[in-house]
Design brief:
Layout (H helix, E strand, L loop, with lengths): L6 H6 L1 H4 L2 H5 L4 H6 L3 H18 L11 H8 L3 H10 L2 H11 L7 H13 L7 H4 L3 H9 L2 H13 L4 H7 L3 H11 L5 H13 L1 H10 L2 H12 L2 H16 L4 H22 L6 H17 L4 H16 L4 H14 L3 H11 L1 H11 L6 H13 L8 H19 L8 H15 L10 H23 L1
Helix pairs in contact: 9-12, 12-15, 14-16, 15-16, 15-18, 16-19, 17-18, 17-19, 18-19, 18-20, 19-20, 19-21, 20-22, 21-22, 21-23, 22-25, 24-26
Amino acid sequence: MTEEVSLDAILASEELSADVSNVVMHKSFRQYLMSANPSLMLYITKKFDRICEIIFDERHKDTHEIRPYLAILECSVIAVKRTLITSTKYVNYILEYPRMIKVYKLPSIYIFFNSLPYFILDTSNELLPFFASGEFFESIVQNCDIQEAFTFMKGCLNSKAKSFRNFFHQINLPALLIMYVNGSSGMNLNVIKLFEQIVDDYSRQCAIAVVNSNIISKLIESAFLLNCSQLIDFLNFLYIQSYKNKTIPEWFTIEFLVDDRIPEVCDYLMGTTTFDSMCKASANIIITYLSERHQQFPKVISVTEKFIKDIFKNPTNSFLHNTALKFLESVKRFPDSFTNVIKNTNICQLIVDAYKRRNTDVTCCYWGVLRKISEMINEPIGVSLSEWKSVVDSNKKIEKIISTPSKYKITEKSSDYIRNSAKVQKRSKFNLRLPNSSEIFAVVVILLAYLLYYINNKEK
């Protein structure tokens, strides 16, 4: 009924405007809001508390019900913002929101946090002074669900507003990093990626926080305690950053802090029975060490030997296969160590036996890794030269098959034919064409022959 009444008439009527939904759900509401219609602005000012109550109503089943109400808070029109800031409790509402959602779990939360950074940090810069202390940001992190906080912080980091840097310089981002690591029950991937971006933007500040707060030890201890591969991934990220930022003393310190824990990571890997995401993440730290430091020590050799042996016990685990190959490639730079690994693992005999069976119930990666390893071995150990020659010959045969082009060359003409055939196949099966003259002649000849045959048989 109210849809037939103009929005001006509803705003002018105390009876019709008593129900906020009559105004907010009207088809002209958005147009009036975006133009900062004076009558609508006056109405919103009077009904602001009621609008907030509706947003906080726990009975909402669908976010679509509250989107029009949230549109008021999220409106980017400067005149609307200025009215909300000067004439309502708009600022207090935003400041209190993070603390309130600890009690209320509302469907509006996701929408609110998705848009919040943009109407705080937009070019009008009207709201920024209220949040410049950074307390609001820290309140979000401390009170909100980790996913909600991530959504908000990601939006802030991606903001292109000029006020962005000023806003973030007021916030102790390294302290937030410490808080998450200390209180983490396993950082999810979103938070890891977020802090990687923070470290990129605030490299020196974060490095100081990592060093002064013993973050490296806490990451390793928490990761092993919680079996959390994401924490190890984040540790490896910091480790890689330390090599990229050697000119910053704090990052140089982080490099050596991680180096000191490499033997501990090796011990962890030696004690595992399956190669899972935690093993893969831990192995990546050692790979970073090997590729950047160009050094090796006995425990790394032991891990390499374990991975080599595990390849043949787990012929379908491609993550293990590729990791073992990377370890062996790193060790090959040290001839004596490489020879010892070949000897201790008896890998030449294992490869010869595998090639004899050549079963197909394993991944292609398995055979590809064995081929790569066999090509790295110039002097086989533990097998006869004739046995090893069979492996070499098999590799050459496979290489020839791979490198030899197909005799069925696809010419430009045949390519056109294939493309045209594909087009024909897409057409409806009822899309028939008219027969040409030669086809008609052939059909006529067949019919005449059949007719003559029929007449002759009938006369007999």
